[in-house]
Design goal:
alpha+beta; 128 residues; 3 strands; elongated; Arc Repressor Mutant, subunit A
């Protein structure tokens, strides 16, 4: 399955807002157009990368019976803080696409940091 950074962002923002993604709340993410297996896969990736504290799920007969995906780590908070604003997120994706860079977490973080730095410098110069 291909990694989807938009889904990673959506999941992290949901967890930040709700503090956890449970079986009853997973429908909210599915309504955004994602498949359940895609959501579970990305939950696992975010947990493996150290962005969330807990991830556990169980299924039976092709149905999700239990899901608990909770608590952002310090790294998770830092990452979502960088890409929360749509302006920064869209500019980050544009730069990555235009320059042919990989859509890897480290690259996204570096580009988002550069975008924020550029925007900050422009804002400071505009004030002078």
């Amino acid at each position: 399955m291909k990694r989807n950074m938009d889904l990673c962002r959506d999941l992290l923002m949901f967890i930040e807002k709700e503090d956890r993604l449970t079986t009853s709340k997973v429908k909210t993410v599915i309504e955004k157009g994602y498949e359940l297996n895609e959501i579970l896969y990305h939950c696992q990736l975010l947990q493996e990368h150290g962005y969330v504290r807990e991830f556990e799920y169980k299924g039976a007969l092709g149905r999700l019976t239990f899901l608990d995906f909770s608590g952002l780590t310090w790294e998770g908070h830092d990452f979502i803080d960088k890409i929360r604003e749509n302006t920064v997120w869209n500019k980050t994706k544009d730069v990555i696409t235009q320059k042919g860079l990989p859509m890897a977490l480290e690259v996204v973080q570096q580009v988002a940091t550069a975008v924020i730095t550029s925007m900050t410098q422009a804002a400071i110069h505009g004030m002078l």
